Amino acid sequence: MAPTTDGDVRRFYEKLAADYDRMTGLEKRFAQERPAFKRLIDTYHVRTAVDAGAGTGFHTLLLSELGVAVTAVDLSSAMLDALRANARARGVSVEAIESSFEEMPARLGETYDGVFCMGNSLPHLLAESDLSASLKSFQAILKAGGILCIQMLNYTRILARRERVLSAKEDGGTIYVRFYDFGGEEIGFNLLKIARTASGLATTCDSVALHPWKGEEIRALLAGAGFSSVRLFGNVGLDPFEPATSRDLVLLAQR
Fold first, then answer.
1. What CATH number labels 6-154+212-254?
2. Beta strand pairing call for 165-171 and 69-74
3. Checking CA distances to 234, which of 36, 100, 150, 195 falls within 20 to 30 Å?
4. Measured in whole angstroms, how far is the alpha carbon of residue 196 from the centre of its chain?
């Protein structure tokens, strides 16, 4: 599998932006995740935050509606355009900046109470050097005592079970299937889109490489980046992390 660059990731999400909210069910997630995020921001006194890898803005909007001043950061201008449209629809004012993780300290020029990197963003960083540099960027934009919250899928479980199909969802006559290809150190993340048309079925399939980072690997790199109190959980509700069964891997660390 060829190395993935920021440009590859950007192009993948530029194509995905128009369908992203339809395939992920944006609206229903607010009620599901609001209690957990309210506990986080109350416990750690988060009043300002960065949503790193913000996509179409679900976590940006959720945090904003909970009273946090949020700056949204993403590589894809199309995803940020969708984020701005979602913010207008919900009457939320947000700042959105197009940037890689490594460029954030220079692009933002401020420090924050929290950095949230949600939605399986980190596995797009294939090399340990890139992941380490990104974690150091997160550390650089945090105030003393500020928290970093990372959420990604639990690849220990996924690899052990060889779970190829991540999800399948139909919306308005279009079926979205997210699935993996396994092989080598990276895995292929694919989005198959099947649209019903008057003449039959129209299909497209777009792919990007991911690195299946494990919890202990990220914990060690966080320590090297200057973070303390690194803890692993199985979800944003902070239930215990069970490598064999947890759907998600959530890491909380403090600067």
1. 3.40.50.150
2. unpaired
3. 100
4. 30
pTM: 0.93
Percent of the chain with pLDDT over 70: 96
Alpha helices for the chain (secondary structure H): 6-24, 26-43, 58-65, 77-90, 104-108, 128-140, 155-161, 215-224
CA-to-CA distance for 135 and 129, rounded, in angstroms? 10
Can you list the positions of beta strands (E) in 172-247? Answer: 174-182, 187-197, 200-210, 228-233
Dump pLDDT digits (tens) for 170-224: 988 899 999 999 988 999 999 999 998 888 899 999 999 999 999 999 999 999 9
Q: Mention every residue, 6+ apart, whose C-beta is less than 8 A from residue 203.
A: 192, 193, 194, 195
Helix axes 215-224, 128-140, angle to 10 degrees: 50
Domain boundaries, the chain: 6-154+212-254, 158-209
Q: Are 239 and 38 contacting, i.e. CB atoms less than 8 angstroms apart?
A: no
For the stretch 11-63, pLDDT in tens is 999 988 888 888 876 667 788 899 999 999 999 999 999 999 999 999 999 99
Residues 236 and 250 sit within 8 Å (Cβ to Cβ):
yes
Both structure tokens of 222: 């966080």
Which CATH number applies to 158-209?
Answer: 2.20.25
Question: Please, what is the Cα angle at 73 between 71 and 79, to 5 degrees?
Answer: 120
The whole-angstrom separation of Cα 89 and Cα 74 is 20
